[in-house]
Design brief:
Length: 612
């Protein structure tokens, strides 16, 4: 049965005694050799007699009667079990191939292997045990931005940026010394592109008597790294923005009280009073502090915006004279506009602030040397998500505003920090460090994006992308029909007002200011207290002025409760945060107005007069 099974095997098999003589040879192997099994099984033929050359290990060439030698491989060599000397050995050979066919197949195999090597989407490098590159595929050549001739023959370490070479060298040494067959490491490739790569190393054992080799796969992780850095930067900016917004909110309450009580004092101490100058000094400094707080709110995207439909070209044309005065005579200002720019919906005052801040920043970068400052507008159509260094711009139709200077440029290590509040490279006292952070906050709150490109010694370009706004015919007509209204100078009035504010100083100032203008004022320090005050009075409330964020019942919740009983109730919200943070929480917007903190006595009286 064993003989029958061996005869059915799709391989050549022969059995040998301890002297290497053939004691069994199956029909398949016999047919390859041009004979019958009986021709070889008489015990007089040695396997060595049938082989060209020495040995039977690995590749062998068999002599064939009346033909050219055939090549075979020994795939199994099995010693028969026994207690004494080796009694027999079974040798197994797969299908043979004539020499000329073998050479053709070998060449074809090498061609296919080379094709797979070159066409692989994964970057592959082969190196000897000393770390010298012996070959590299096309994907690596493209990734590294090199030519094949410049890569082969160089040390792997020369292909890595100097900062990462020591770590890569340790990694390679461990593999060469046998302390680890493989693994992975992150490094950046040398070259202009600065490609970040995940390197996978495999040590490949050599043939008998030959040294091994190193197989390295490079996975381009540049985009992934950029996304990770952008995410980390956006998280940091968000955290700083939340902190700045919280600080600004608290400061606005303090500044409202300071400015308000100054106004109350000024109403009793006119210009001829000895205290007038001191009070004005306090108010002026409080207003300066309020401007700083507004910049913090702009960065944290919590500033109140009043967007309007405008033409960027017209807006910049109106600003050009102001910009020329800002930059001085040594700097040449060039303003150019693209065609079919279109419209945007932004707060005109905030857009002016953005342009002025960028122009002043550019002026300071060219201080003493002079140069050229260019402001350009152009339509920008983005077809696919585009990375700007700190964020990704989604596809869309945008209007681009570029502010370019020929100044000193921004060091690479500072590019990721320039939009942070209070970050400045200027001398102490020369700036607040809030200029660019204000730009960033306003642009983001407007729904736009900002990118920066800079080269030390050559200059910097800031590019703002604002979404193009498609205005309806009605909106265009309303925009054309806007007429400047002269506010009434008489700020006195009548009516009952409920003032709800948890900050005692702000509430006290507000109540005194409104009473001084003729209004009757009921006070409450939170939402719950406001409901109690209303339940204990028979007065008809004409207007509710309420803070937004309060302990217990907050402003929006209080107004919803009051409007259930009196839907037409007029409301003014006062807050150090932006209107947008709570607008959506209201059931209806009709009759709801907003007054941002800090506000003066005149601001409060004007808003109340307008609403009533």
């Amino acid at each position: 049965h064993a003989d029958q099974m061996i005869e059915r095997l799709p391989v050549g098999v022969c059995g040998l005694d301890e002297d290497g003589r053939i004691i069994y040879l199956n029909r398949r192997l016999a047919s390859w050799l041009g004979g019958e099994p009986e021709d070889f099984n008489d015990g007089t033929v040695e396997l060595a007699d049938l082989i060209v050359g020495d040995g039977v290990n690995g590749e062998v060439k068999f002599k064939v009667a009346g033909g050219e030698p055939i090549r075979c491989f020994v795939t199994h060599s099995i010693n028969a079990p026994g207690t004494g000397p080796v009694r027999s050995q079974a040798v197994v050979f797969p299908d043979p191939m004539p020499a000329h066919e073998w050479e053709h197949a070998l060449a074809e195999t090498e061609r296919r292997v080379r094709w797979f090597f070159d066409e692989s989407p994964l970057s592959i490098v082969l190196a000897d045990m000393s770390g010298t590159v012996t070959d590299a595929n096309r994907a690596f050549i493209v990734t590294a931005g090199q030519t094949h001739d410049k890569v082969v023959g160089r040390s792997i370490l020369e292909l890595i940026v100097p900062e990462d070479r020591d770590e890569v060298a340790r990694y390679l040494s461990k593999a060469v010394m046998g302390m680890g067959k493989g693994g992975q490491i992150e490094a950046r490739l040398a070259g202009a592109r600065g490609v970040a790569a995940q390197i996978y190393l495999q040590r490949v054992a050599g043939r008998s008597g030959e040294a091994g080799a190193l197989l390295l796969n490079f996975l381009d992780t540049t985009e992934q790294k950029n996304l990770e850095e952008q995410f980390a930067q956006s998280q940091k900016m968000q955290a700083v923005g939340q902190l700045a917004g919280g600080v600004a909110h608290d400061f606005n309450n303090l500044l409202t009280a300071m400015i308000g009580f100054c106004d109350l004092l000024l109403s009793r101490h006119g210009p001829g009073d000895p205290s007038f100058a001191d009070i004005m000094q306090i108010k002026q400094n409080a207003n300066r502090a309020a401007n700083l707080v507004r910049q913090l709110l702009a960065f944290s995207r919590r500033q109140t915006l009043q967007p309007k439909i405008i033409n960027i070209t017209d807006a910049l044309a109106e600003m050009s004279n102001l910009l020329r005065r800002l930059i001085g005579e040594k700097i040449d200002l060039k303003v150019s506009h693209g065609r079919d720019i279109g419209l945007v919906k932004v707060d005109p005052g905030q857009l002016d602030q953005v342009i002025i801040n960028l122009v002043v920043n550019a002026r300071d970068a060219m201080a003493g040397e002079g140069g050229t400052l260019t402001v350009q507008t152009s339509p920008e159509i983005i077809d696919e998500p585009t990375a700007t260094g700190t964020e990704i711009i989604p596809p869309g139709d945008y209007i681009g505003i570029k502010v370019t200077d020929t100044g000193i440029g921004i060091p690479k290590e500072n590019l990721t920090r320039i939009f942070e509040p209070f970050f400045s490279t200027k001398q102490r006292g020369e700036g607040t460090g809030l200029g660019l952070s204000t730009v960033y906050g306003i642009v983001k709150q407007t729904g736009g994006f900002i990118a920066v490109n800079s080269e030390e010694g050559k200059g910097t370009t800031f590019t703002i992308y604002l979404p193009r706004y498609e205005a309806s015919e009605q909106e265009l007509a309303e925009t054309q029909a806007v007429i400047e209204e002269t506010p009434s100078r008489d700020l006195t009035g009548t009516g009952a007002i409920l003032l709800v504010e948890d900050e005692d100083a702000v509430r006290t100032f507000g109540a005194r200011a409104l009473r001084s203008k003729g209004y009757e004022v009921l006070e409450a320090n939170n939402g719950d207290n406001a409901l109690e005050v209303l339940n204990n009075t028979d007065k008809t409330i004409d207007l509710v002025i309420s803070d937004v964020v309060m302990p217990g019942i907050d402003g929006p919740t209080l107004i919803r409760m009051l409007r259930e009983q009196k839907p037409e109730l007029k409301v003014i919200f006062i807050s150090g945060y932006a209107e947008d943070t709570y607008r959506d929480e209201l059931d209806e917007e009709n009759g709801v107005h907003f007054l941002p903190k800090p506000f003066s006595l005149k601001d409060l009286a004007t808003k109340v007069k307008e609403v009533l």
